[in-house]
Structures are given as structure tokens and as C-alpha cells.
Amino acid sequence: MHNFKLPRLYAIISFEKTGIFSVAEELIEYGQALMSGGVLIIQLRCKDNEDMKLLESVASELISYKYSKFSNCKIIINDFPEYVLKFGADGCHVGQNDTKVEIARSIIGIDKILGLSTNNIDHLSNIDTSLLNYLACGPVYRSVTKSGHADEIGLDGVKNMTSAIPSLPFVAIGGLNKDNSEAIYNAGAMSIAVVSDIKNAYLNGNLIQYIQSFETLNV
Cβ–Cβ contacts within 10 Å for residue 166, how many? Predict the structure, then answer.
């Protein structure tokens, strides 16, 4: 499972309680725009169990769209491995307090992608990396899109964690954007996860330019 390569840009669609990103049609349109713009991995993040019907609706539509037009894009479901097989998603991402890695892998099978969030070196020492395709490290900086997260790890944390397990690719997450991405890549992360930055590019009408700009970075 160590042959998986992360693209430079890892887009997260975070479901919101209010506004346009709390409406299925808007979320679907956004996800389709990401795929059309060239994003190669999208995570659907719905942290509220009350919004499961919304997640089901969006996941079903986006995965159908992916298979009809953009089969090279990977769609990852956050927290809920059972939805991976239900909708034909490409994989699942779990956190330290979510479904255990061993259980998630047993649910989704060996052919699906499985990622795990980590925040410190101790997290790395207690996992079976043979069950994983990639790791996430962070938050690198303070994030405005996720409440109650762990302490920031900074660039040194990215360097220490990526060097501790060189056999797996890392995606860095937390307060990341186009402006600070180059330093993150140079610290050892193969990919950066973006939430607000890419959403703002979409809302401002410059999504394609934003996505393409990551291919010209000096890394």
C-alpha cells in the first residue's frame, strides 16, 4: 500500500451549517467545478451526524459525476468507511478519534485508499503503516475551518513527522494556502490540504488559475 502518490493539491469540501455550502446542489456544483478544474483528490468532510442525508446526496452525485467524466480524480470520505463501498468512493480518511485504522481497512478492503490524521510523533509510533496509503500531519497553523483541533505543529513538525516515516506520503493540513504552500512542500509534505483558500478561489471566479498555479511552484 506504499505505492500511492498524493497530488500536490488535496481539496477538502467542508460541509457547513449555514450558507451555500450547507445546500446539496451548491456542494455538488462546487465538487464538479473542482474536478473540471483538474483537482485529483477531493475529501468530503461532514462532521455533523445530523447531516448524513446531505453527505449521502452529495457523495452519490459527485461519485457518479467522477465516473462519467473524471475517473482519475479520487474521492475520499472523511470518517465514515461504510460509505466508501456504499457509493463507490475511492477511499476513506480517519482521525485519531474516529474509526480505528484496522477496522476501517477491514470495512473498505485492500484496494481502497486509507489515510490517517496525525499530530505528533507518538501518533506515528502507534500505527500499522502497512494498512495505510498516506498520512496527514497537522494542523500546521491555526485553522478557521475546524474547531477544537490540536496544537499547531509548524514547519518543524512537518519536517520531523515526514522524515519519521519516509515510506508513506504526507499531506499537510491546517491554515494552509497558496502563499505558504511552497515552504510546506520543501519541509517534506508531498501534498497540502486546502479548504478555505480553494473555496474562496471558486467563489471569486479564479478556480482554474488557482489550481494551475500549484504546478509552477519551485519545489
Answer: 10
Q: Could you list the pLDDT tens digit for every one of the 219 residues in the chain?
A: 667 899 999 999 999 888 888 899 999 999 999 999 999 999 999 977 668 899 999 999 999 999 999 899 999 999 999 999 999 999 999 999 989 999 999 999 999 999 999 999 999 988 899 999 999 999 999 876 655 567 899 999 999 999 999 999 999 999 999 999 999 999 999 999 999 999 999 999 999 999 999 988 877
Q: For the chain, what percentages of helix, strand and coil (3-state, to nearest 5) are there?
A: 45, 15, 40
Alpha carbons 75 and 62: distance in angstroms, whole number: 8
CATH code for the domain defined by 9-216: 3.20.20.70
pTM flag (> 0.85): yes
Domain edges within the chain: 9-216
Report helix, strand or coil for 191: strand
